Structure formats: structure tokens, C-alpha cells
């Protein structure tokens, strides 16, 4: 796993370290981080998700695998959100995002390249199916929860209008519609989506570094520790137990799936926290803690 750490793990997250260094030198501040994050939310992520879903091979999705993995995500999401709300007294919106962070892995930019190296191209099919369910259900469902939480005092119609104009939800719906209908995507749209979508990960990680620059890393954030433990230790254990109990591990060749479950928290909960003005420090630290911890868990599973 040393080679995997040197490439692609460390280069991907080095952009976050660059953000921390530049912010501490005064070149970027929280205002810049919010501006970068708006670009990620309104342009880069919608482009990335549209192209991903428009081109997804939905016909070869193993529904049993998706069902088992989705059940594990629901368990982790609910557990983390309840602990954050009841034990750590987090606000409702922050609890929702901490729940998402506990089950939403950095699969596109972190786990998928590692799995391809370890298991070959056959690993891309189950991981691609997980990415599809995470995008269409976990990500979209979290945004809906945040919209209702942030517009609690407004009418139902205004909340629905906000959902219908949300760029991420629109891109998810459009991508799925294009895929299901069989309409081809023009190469110009592919070029734009690829070009803009490629900026989603580095831009979000860079803004995460800016926000975390003012954090005292040597003081323990127990909320982030809780999310990290659930994501890195409990999630792969739950996935393994579910596969073993209901279907038998051997029939699913679960190594790639367990690799996803043991992967670090993705940056998307942090992107949403910034966009919806939710406290993001614990979510950002969970990304860092889980990235470091996943080096050990991924090594064991691999």
C-alpha cells in the first residue's frame, strides 16, 4: 500500500494541505473558501454528476449488491445523525451532514483508483453501482433534508421550488433521464462536463484546507472522531455482516465493496455544509481523520 499512498492517495489530498498553508500565510480567507465552494456547488459538481449518471451502465447494476450496501448506509447515517443530535447536541442540519459523512465515501477520487490497481477492471462495476446509489439517493436525499431544515419557517411550495431549482438535484435528474431515454450526449456537452467536473475534487479540497487552517489540529474533536470510527471501522463491519448473513460473502466477491465501506469520508458533506452555512469544522476534520485512518483499514482489507 506504500505505492498506493504515494499515488493516488497523497497527491489527491496534498491540495488540501496547500489550502491550509496558503490560508495560514494570508493568501486566502474564509470568504475565498465560500466563493470557491459556490463554484463547486453550482458548476463543478452538477457537471460531474450529470456526466457520471448519463454514462452509467445501469443495465448491469447488481440490485442485490446495491440493496445490501444501501441498508448498511442507512444504518450508519441514522446512527451518526442520532449520536450527533442527542449526545453532542449538534444542530439538525449539522447532524444530517454528519450522518452523511459517516456513510458517504470518497469513492470516485480515492477508492476507485486503488480498487482498479488491486483488483483490476472488474472492481469498477460494483463501485460504479455504489456511486450511482450514493449520488441519486444519499446525496439527493441529504440535500432535500437540508432544504427542509433550512426553510423550516417557509411554505411547502417555497421549499419545493427550492428543490426544483437546486443545481445538484437538477443535474442528477437530467443525467438519469438522458441515460434511461437512451439519448446520446453531444461531444461538446461531454467536453464541458468533463472539464468542469474535473475541478470538483481539487476545488472542494482546497476550500476545505482554507477553512481548516484556523483549526487546532492537536485538540481532539470528538464529533469528528465518532464519525471517523463509524466510517472506517463500523461501516465495513456492518457490510461484511450483512453480506454474510443474507447472501453469503463468496457470491458477491465483496473485496471491492468492503474497500468502499472502509474508505475515508468524502468531501461532499463539507461542500454542502459550506453551501448551507452549516458549521463545517467537525465535518472537515472527519475527512482528515478518516483519510489517515483508512490507510490502515484499506491495507488490512486489501
Primary descriptors:
302 residues, mainly alpha, 14 helices
Estimated structural class: mainly alpha
The helix tally amounts to 14
> What is the count of β-strands?
0
Order of helices and strands: HHHHHHHHHHHHHH
The rounded distance between the terminal residues' Cα atoms is 8 Å
Overall 3D form: globular
Spatial extent as radius of gyration? 18 Å
Q: Quote the beta fraction.
A: under 5%
Residues in helices, as a percent range: over 70%
> Which consecutive residue ranges, at least 5 long each, have pLDDT under 50?
none
Largest sheet, if any? none
Quote the average pLDDT. 85
Characterization of this structure:
The chain has 302 residues and is mostly helical. It is built from 14 helices and no strands. Helix 1 crosses helix 10, helix 2 runs antiparallel to helix 10 and helix 3 runs antiparallel to helix 11.
List the helices and strands and how they pair.
Layout: H1 2-24, H2 30-54, H3 63-86, H4 92-101, H5 107-119, H6 124-150, H7 156-164, H8 167-181, H9 187-197, H10 200-212, H11 222-246, H12 255-261, H13 268-275, H14 281-301
Provide a brief overview of the structure.
This protein is mostly helical. It has 14 helices and no strands.
